[in-house]
Design goal:
The chain is α+β, with helices and mostly antiparallel strands. It has helices at 19-27, 29-32, 121-150; strands at 5-15, 39-48, 51-60, 63-75, 79-86, 91-103, 106-117. A hairpin with a 2-residue loop joins strand 3 and strand 4.
Length: 153
Amino acid sequence: MGKPFVVCGEGRTVIRRSAEDILEFVLDVDHYRQADLKIGRVHYVKRRGNVGEVRHDGRFLGIKAPPAVLAFTLTPYDRLEFRGIKVPWPLRGFSGFFTCDETPDGMMVVHRECFIFGRVAGPVFMLLLGWWLRRDTPAEVLRMKRLLEGEAL
């Protein structure tokens, strides 16, 4: 099979909301898709305490993609991790996380997401998607900030 090829994006910003507000917003996937434009129609979110899974269609560069199933683990309230448990071809996997660290100005939120491809398809998708993901993930975090701070009480 060969070594996998990983394409990642990362964004960070300070959000003036609690870590709980931020991470629970991400877990409200129907609402969160306003920030993450890679999420299409949400089929389901199953949650049992701090673990669960979500199944949703994808969108890349505005084009509909087949559904993926992601497992999530919440470490209240400083980290939320996602990993692909059923991802469509040409993906071999997915991993991502959000972290929240308190600062004097608010919560420093870091979001990283990595799409894992096979050795053959990876270089092609790096050319097609790498530039976009490196711009979209930071933009996603800024959209998240605007949505959350706009809703602040």
